[in-house]
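This protein record is not my work; I was only asked to verify it. Take the sequence as given and treat only the tokens as open to question. I have pasted the whole thing underneath without changing anything:
***
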Amino acid sequence: MSDAPHEEHGNNARTLNWLRAGVLGANDGIISTAGLVIGVAAATTDRTAIFTAGMAGLVAGAMSMAVGEYVSVSTQRDSEKAQLALEKRELAEMPEQELVELAQIYEGKGLEPELAQEVAVALTERDALAAHADAELGIDPDELTNPWHAAWASLIAFTLGALLPLLAIVLPPESWRVGVTGVSVLLALLLTGWISSGLGRSPRGPAIVRNVLGGFIAMVVTYGIGALVGTQI
């Protein structure tokens, strides 16, 4: 029996995970940069100061996201490799016990004992390590997580998200800056909330409200702090 449907499902799941991560990374870029530039704009009208602060926040945030993802995914990859090495050693040292264990796993999933044994034998003959890695660990030996992919994806997503509030705060006239930025950010958060809830197949209303409300609160708080600091300088 072909395992193409299983592979297609796995590829679709990985694609959705990357899309969700990208949307969330962009969301972080939008909120963090918006809060920063709104706060600075409340303290000063100097366009250069606002742009400099926004660019610094964009670069620092993007690098932080990239490094964080790289470290996190590298740790996960090291763990996966260690588990696979252990499984490979157990298959070499005690293949009979491992075959029994695999059959028991499929029996526990609802297969009759005889059918579970047949499936375990067939999968073991085809690729014992892949069969055990999938059934016991939920790992595909040929599709280990890539820390560089995760790092670049996070860096790009955060940067794209951060560019919106940065451009919205520096391009309009002084009297329009905060208003244009606020509206642009809230509309962008509405969109990212809608997309992320759709990818996760969760109710869109609550996700959008949480996203927009969180961004609104962040901007209000940082604007208040910036205005307070601006009056003291």
